[in-house]
């Protein structure tokens, strides 16, 4: 898949979301949904199966996510799936999130933790990451059991890995 195609889809979805005044909501929800779909092999396979009619694939989207995302996000996701681009959803969602954050003067930050953080913990972590990045960020928090403990954050090309897994790997290299 070319970056241009991904950018074009992200741009089109951004235009639709803007028309509804929902660009931040769509960018955030689509980003989260793409991560969930990526983690569910059966759902990912079904949505990417082009032998299934488009209306059937979009019905799966509605059945699974209907009440859990905004109507704008549901429409955006359905458009991607109907166009046969479900396999590109993660890349499209990344582009949309980066574009939305950039338009707001923020850096997109993907923050992975082993468990959900409280609002206070999220706020303190955002402040610390903004200090490291040297600019305001738009965080996307992802619960990832692979992190084991601590935090793994990516802000653009910058990686901040304070996870237990990373620390153990560093110790193994020393000994």
What does this structure look like?
It is a single chain. The chain is α+β, with helices and mostly antiparallel strands and 175 residues long. The protein is 61% helix and 13% strand. It has a four-stranded mixed sheet, sandwiched between helices. The longest helix is centred in the N-terminal third of the chain and has 17 residues, at 3-19. The N and C termini lie far apart (42 Å).
CA gyration radius, whole angstroms? 17 Å
Helix and strand sequence: HHHHHHEHEEEH
Q: Count the E strands.
A: 4
Average predicted confidence as pLDDT: 88
Structural class: alpha+beta
Strand order of the largest sheet: 2-1-3-4
Number of helices: 8
Q: Return residue spans where pLDDT drops below 50 for at least 5 consecutive residues.
A: none
Task: Compute the separation of the termini in Å.
Answer: 42 Å
Biggest sheet: strands, sense, closure? 4 strands, mixed
Rough outline: globular
Q: Into which percent range does the helicity of residues fall?
A: 55-70%
Strand percentage, roughly?
5-15%
Quick structural gist:
This protein has eight helices and four strands.
SSE inventory with pairings:
Layout: H1 3-19, H2 23-38, H3 41-48, H4 54-65, H5 71-82, H6 89-103, E1 107-113, H7 119-133, E2 137-143, E3 151-155, E4 158-161, H8 164-174
Helix pairs in contact: 1-2, 1-5, 1-6, 2-5, 2-6, 4-5
């Amino acid at each position: 898949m070319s970056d241009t195609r991904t950018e074009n889809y992200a741009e089109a979805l951004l235009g639709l979301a803007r028309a509804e005044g929902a660009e931040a909501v769509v960018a955030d929800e689509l980003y989260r949904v793409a991560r969930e779909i990526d983690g569910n092999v059966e759902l990912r396979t079904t949505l990417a199966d082009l032998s299934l009619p488009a209306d059937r694939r979009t019905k799966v989207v509605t059945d699974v996510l209907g009440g859990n995302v905004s109507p704008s996000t549901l429409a955006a996701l359905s458009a991607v799936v109907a166009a046969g681009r479900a396999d590109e959803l993660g890349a499209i969602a990344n582009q949309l999130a980066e574009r939305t954050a950039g338009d707001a003067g923020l850096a997109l930050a993907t923050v992975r933790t082993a468990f959900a953080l409280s609002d206070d913990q999220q706020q303190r972590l955002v402040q610390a990451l903004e200090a490291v990045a040297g600019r305001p960020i738009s965080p996307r928090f992802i619960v990832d059991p692979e992190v084991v403990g601590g935090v793994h954050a990516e802000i653009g090309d910058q990686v901040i890995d304070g996870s237990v897994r990373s620390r153990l790997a560093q110790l193994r290299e020393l000994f």
